[in-house]
Amino acid sequence: MFEKIYDYSVNEIKRGYAEDEEGFVCLCCQQRFSKDEIYLLDNHFYKANKAVIVHLKQAHSDYFDLLLEHICLLYTSPS
Q1: pLDDT tens figures, 38-58
Q2: Are 48 and 23 spatial neighbours (Cβ–Cβ below 8 Å)?
Q3: Angle at 76 between CA 75 and CA 79, to 5 degrees
Q4: In terms of pLDDT, which residue wins out, 39 or 65?
Q5: Fewer beta carbons within 10 angstroms: which end of the chain, N or C?
Q6: pLDDT digits 0-9 by tens, 23-42
Q7: Side-chain-side CA neighbours of residue 44 (13 Å)
Q8: Dmax (CA) of the chain
Q9: 52-59 long-range CB contacts below 8 Å, 24 or more apart?
């Protein structure tokens, strides 16, 4: 989790996902959401930009806590 955190902007880290030409990627689990697809989540259909947000809320509701834990580990681990 968060293996490539330094590759993302502050806004992307805050949101919990990044966007590229092909779609969106969850920063927690690297699950991709293609812009060309429609996703069925909880009996609702979503475009990729909304599906990644719904995914984050469902699968990583503790995203902020996980992010803080990761940052603390980076700064407290011996080099």
Answers
A1: 999 999 999 999 999 999 999
A2: yes
A3: 80
A4: 39
A5: C
A6: 999 988 899 999 999 999 99
A7: 8
A8: 47
A9: 52/17, 52/24, 52/25, 52/26, 53/17, 55/26, 55/31, 56/16, 56/17, 56/26, 56/28, 59/26, 59/28, 59/29, 59/31
